[in-house]
Amino acid sequence: MSGVVEVDGLKEARQAFRDAEGKTRDLSAAHRKVAQLATERTKARAATGTRQQAAAAKALIGRGTAAGADLAVRNTSAVPFGKGAFFGSLRWQQFPMWVGNTWDIEAGDGPYIIRDVLSDRSNIEDFQDKFLEEFGSALAAVGLDIAN
């Protein structure tokens, strides 16, 4: 499953951040900002999808951890059809065709609407810029700097 954006030198920067007594909550906050941006963009795009996808946009949630930014789809009592609207189904006809559990977003495979947002080059650049801005602030707080 390829929905991952690789940033050269990030592993080394994370290690330097930890060595400089950086708090993982600062790193989580940087990832959370990226996840929130991805969630906002996906919700906006879902509004142009089917009625079901527009209603299921409430099921999208962005989370940030020290390890990365995640965009999740959940089924809630308010939106019990969230996963079906974005991932499809083999059994239930009211949902689009199931996308499977192995896909490559860059190749155009994956969850409906979400794949369009995450594979859009301008969005990827915005996500990277947002992360570098937030991570740069976290690094600066512990006395480190990102060299361009």
Topology (SSEs and partners):
Blueprint: H1 10-19, H2 24-46, H3 51-56, E1 60-64, E2 69-73, H4 82-87, H5 114-119, H6 121-141
Helix pairs in contact: 2-6
Description:
The protein has helices at residues 10-19, 24-46, 51-56, 82-87, 114-119, 121-141; strands spanning 60-64, 69-73. The chain contains 6 helices and 2 strands; from the N terminus they run αααββααα. Strands 1-2 form a two-stranded antiparallel ribbon. It is mainly α and 148 residues long.
Question: What is the strand content?
Answer: 5-15%
SS summary, helix count: 6
Q: What's the number of extended β-strand segments? A: 2
From the spread of the alpha carbons, the general shape counts as elongated
**Helix/strand order, N-terminal first:** HHHEEHHH
For the biggest β-sheet, the strand order reads 1-2
What's the oligomerization state?
A: single chain
Share of helical residues: 40-55%
Integer-rounded radius of gyration: 17 Å
Task: Name the average pLDDT.
Answer: 86
Our measurement of the CA-to-CA distance between the termini, rounded to an integer number of angstroms, reads 30 Å
Structural class: mainly alpha
Q: Quick gist of this model?
A:
The protein is mainly alpha-helical. It contains six helices and two strands, in the order αααββααα.
Keywords:
single chain; 148 residues; mainly alpha; two-stranded antiparallel ribbon; 6 helices; elongated
